[in-house]
């Protein structure tokens, strides 16, 4: 039997944030005291995802789902634990990451492509496809600060999906733009499933997960509660209703 290849391995991941409720007074600064609270977004999470798997991450709002994806994508650094990722990761969580508002759309394609790990020759090869898919017209030659929010998201999405990722990370906000662009972007995402890419997804669109996820991870209160088949999703839906 062929041994499964690991795409992502998380070992004992904890992510803490310190919340400062009020600006400390001078006396509090002097004695190193301030009114602050620690928030644990992820608590000792261990998870292994294999190449070609499509995994849905579910849980209530504030459970730590998006934080988990940000740690995998390298957007957030864990407080403790180790993250091992094998292959190029492209995240659709923050589509504007790596953009410079002073640069043109064309220049930002190259900048963003390099940030997510593409080589210049790779970018040149798919440049026309990126521009055509984003469909922002003559704005491709204009500085990014002149773009609407929707145009920036379209450009970011187009760069991401043409980067030929080994691992694709989807969040709830993955559908961007007007109805026509959402249809086009949805078709592109479905193509990744057909190609057998490793896909991680967080979505309240549970029908989408039921159709495409092969494994489900349930997260609650920053803890990984359960990992398994679609029965977890069905039980979660039943409890919500």
Unreliable spans are none
- Report how far apart the termini are: 41 Å
Order of strands in the sheet with most strands? 5-6-7-3-8-9
SS summary, helix count: 8
Strand content: 25-35%
Q: Briefly, what CATH class?
A: Alpha Beta
| Rg of Cα set | 20 Å
Strand elements, count: 9
CATH architecture: 3-Layer(aba) Sandwich
CATH superfamily: P-loop containing nucleotide triphosphate hydrolases
Quote the average pLDDT: 86
Main structural class:
alpha/beta
Number of domains: 1
- Shape by Cα distribution: globular
Largest sheet: 6 strands, mixed
What labels describe this entry?
241 residues; 8 helices; 6-stranded mixed β-sheet; alpha/beta; Rossmann fold
Description:
- The protein has 241 residues and is α/β, with parallel strands linked by helices.
- It has one domain (54-80, 88-240): 3-Layer(aba) Sandwich (Rossmann fold).
- Helix content is 36%, strand content 27%.
- The chain contains eight helices and nine strands.
- It has helices at 26-30, 65-73, 105-115, 120-134, 149-161, 179-194, 206-212, 231-240; strands at 6-20, 36-50, 54-58, 80-85, 89-91, 167-170, 198-202, 215-220, 223-228.
- The strands form two sheets. The chain has a six-stranded mixed β-sheet with strand order 5-6-7-3-8-9, with helices on both faces.
- Helix 3 packs across helix 4 (120-134), helix 3 packs across helix 5 and helix 4 packs across helix 5.
- The longest helix is centred in the C-terminal third of the chain and has 16 residues, at 179-194.
- It is globular.
- The termini are far apart.
- The model has no long low-confidence stretch (mean pLDDT 86).
């Amino acid at each position: 039997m062929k041994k499964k290849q690991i795409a992502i391995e998380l070992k004992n991941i904890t992510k803490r944030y310190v919340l400062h409720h009020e600006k400390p007074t001078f006396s509090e600064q002097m004695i190193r005291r301030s009114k602050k609270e620690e928030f644990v977004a992820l608590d000792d999470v261990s998870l292994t995802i294999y190449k070609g798997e499509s995994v849905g991450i579910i849980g209530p709002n504030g459970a730590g789902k998006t934080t988990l994806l940000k740690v995998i994508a390298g957007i957030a650094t864990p407080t403790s634990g180790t993250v091992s990722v094998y292959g190029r990761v492209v995240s659709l969580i923050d589509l504007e990451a790596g953009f410079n508002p002073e640069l043109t759309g064309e220049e930002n394609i190259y900048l963003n492509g390099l940030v997510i790990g593409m080589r210049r020759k790779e970018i040149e090869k798919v440049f026309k496809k990126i521009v055509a898919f984003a469909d922002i017209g003559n704005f491709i030659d204009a500085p990014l600060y002149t773009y609407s929010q929707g145009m920036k998201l379209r450009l970011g999405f187009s760069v991401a999906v043409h980067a030929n990722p080994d691992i694709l990370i989807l969040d709830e906000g993955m559908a961007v733009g007007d109805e026509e662009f959402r249809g086009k972007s949805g078709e592109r995402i479905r193509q990744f499933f057909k190609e057998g890419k490793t896909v991680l997804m967080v979505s309240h669109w549970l029908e989408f997960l039921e159709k495409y996820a092969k494994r489900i991870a349930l997260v609650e209160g920053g803890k990984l509660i359960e990992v398994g088949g679609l029965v977890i999703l069905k039980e979660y839906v039943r409890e919500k209703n």
